[in-house]
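Hi L., both proteins are below.
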Amino acid sequence: METFFVACPSGHQVPVSINHSDAPVQCPQCDGMLESGMPRTSLSDTGAMRILEASELAPPAPKSATASRPCPICRTPVSEASAACAHCQTYLASPPDFLRDLA
């Protein structure tokens, strides 16, 4: 059986079995109680979140958070990234440079 040593509050070296590393240990010389502090070999996601004190996760952002504007013709909401209205096919983007030069 594999063991490791932990110092009690009085400084005595107390042998602790790896199988009992989570349980409190009593020092045989001074009868003081101590935690062994043996790190666990694996940590679950839930355990990590508890360590970080993040018991509740932030809710996901709504999917409809994209910016939109109303079409000037049919008033249908149109994404800011769209160049034309999907409902009435009205061109919404600014005219290309070559058309501005013709005016």
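That was the first. Here is the second:
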Amino acid sequence: MLAVLNLWMVATALVSVFLFNAGPSRARWAALAGLLGQPAWLYLTHATGEAGMFAASLFFTLCYGRGVWNGFLRPGDHDG
């Protein structure tokens, strides 16, 4: 179970970082990839009692959520 969570966490983080560095038109996809990995981060950091990492994961969830909102859901012009 932990191996699957770790693979999920690493894969979404790598895809997100790659897309954020691939140009502004891909930033919304980077935010979506990052947000898709957050349930694994939140679960694992909560289950292992890592309060600091859990708090950081909450912060990243909010940031990725804002990126998804701005890139896909907010009315107006979208890149990509």
